């Protein structure tokens, strides 16, 4: 009787049992203790807030600093609310946090694409002088136009996975955990993504 | 060269994390962490208000409901009746407002110098633009009612701040972000949702977050259904599909004889959550109209409160359409950081 479920987002059901206390280590232990003592959760913030903020800030760009602040804050708020559901057999909470950050970044999807396209246009040879000036201004900190064009060509899901690996340095396995997609999908999506990027970069050079 | 390495080497610079924003995120985590609603307008508080005498403290723990009942209906029976229920239907234009009056009780957790918990209650009316485009999407009139005790925690003074003083709050989306289509719950989006149970079910399951699988995805689907019904107007076709879709969520069952925040008795339909609670939508026994929602502790260890205590309770009192919302002075996006 179950209706259709989106294929890529489901994973085989894993046993929902909570491991014995002895096995709960690392971040999982902090999260477990925060159930009884919510203040402990700040420990997780202290450990990862800067890293998550860096990733969000790269994704949203230098002109959206306050949005990056908000997304980071909301990531940890969401994590705090959902901490009871954390899979405590996983000592490293980074994939979980990145997954939530990715979800929140997705709300800025349209803005992100607009921005990437604008950056990409700077690579066009006949860009007007204003845009040429912008190149110089922008290139010091921001993504190079050609690379922006590559990212702009990707779907939201492709970009999300690709950047978790390239910019957040997640392993394939961690990315699979973060996005809740199977390893097979991670591999195939990444190879498709790389091919797309190769094509775009090839065209532009 | 591998494209991943190329992008890794050319990583753009990240803006520094402003220490003020960082500290405020950390303290928000500490003070508002467990509040239920996502939008900023639920943020209670407002300091400086006259603290009422603490003799008002309600020491009676949230009431425990009685379960056993004579004639039991299954969840799908209740939902089927709800799906077929006749109601007065509305037809707001995109530029009009859906107006919902409700009474709510949710947990408030504060972790300043001393951790404090209480149940805050409000009486509220919300005006939501039928089509939520742009930054400003509505107005909320909210009055804090007497707080209740969070089982085992004395009610702190700050819980009384602002009680009895209605506030008018402009609702605006100030971060410039857009809610992805599958998470929208404004009327314009709801009326475009599938009007068949299968399609609606797929929609409910599309809301789940990364990492969620199995029962977690089921809970998320139920949460999405609740989000669609809370302070909204759902047209008849979508409402029918929605109730039918909820009936297919594994784990959904009936809680006989429960009350909503306004004291109206009804039948609960819901499931147990991994937060140690059982969450129900409440339906009227006769008309099968939606009355409200409730959340009751079933796992004391996980929820941090005795089994049977009520941690959330709402009542949706009236839904109507209006051409205008009350005026609120000032720019809602002005206060920042």
- The run of helices and strands of chain B is HHHEEEEHHHHEEEEHE
Q: What is the CATH architecture annotation of chain A?
A: Up-down Bundle
Estimate the strand proportion of chain A: under 5%
Main sheet summary of chain B:
9 strands, antiparallel
**What summary fits the major beta sheet of chain A?**
none
Task: List the uncertain runs of chain A.
Answer: 1-22, 126-140
Radius of gyration of chain B: 21 Å
The name CATH uses for the topology of chain A is Butyryl-CoA Dehydrogenase, subunit A, domain 3
- Quaternary state reads heterodimer
User: What is the CATH superfamily of chain A?
Assistant: PhyR, sigma-like (SL) domain
User: Termini of chain A, distance in Å?
Assistant: 53 Å
Q: How many helices of chain B in DSSP terms?
A: 8
How much of the polypeptide of chain B forms β-strand, as a percent range? 25-35%
Protein architecture, described:
Chain A has 205 residues and is mainly α. Chain A has one domain: Butyryl-CoA Dehydrogenase, subunit A, domain 3 (Up-down Bundle). Chain A is 64% helix and 0% strand. Chain A has ten helices and no strands. Residues 1-22 and 126-140 of chain A have low confidence and may be disordered. By secondary structure, chain B is an alpha+beta fold. Chain B has one domain. Helices cover 22% and strands 28% of the residues of chain B. Chain B has helices at 3-9, 19-32, 75-84, 187-190, 197-205, 215-229, 236-246, 300-303; strands at residues 97-111, 115-129, 136-149, 167-172, 253-259, 265-272, 277-284, 290-297, 310-322. Chain B has a nine-stranded antiparallel β-sheet with strand order 4-3-2-1-9-8-7-6-5. In chain B, a hairpin with a 5-residue loop joins strand 7 (277-284) and strand 8 (290-297). Chain B is globular and about 60 Å long. Residues 32-71 of chain B have low confidence and may be disordered. At the A-B interface, helix 2, helix 3, helix 4, helix 5 and helix 8 of A face helix 1, helix 2, helix 5 and helix 6 of B. Chain B: The chain crosses the membrane at residues 41-59. Chain B: Residues 1-13 have a biased composition (Basic and acidic residues).
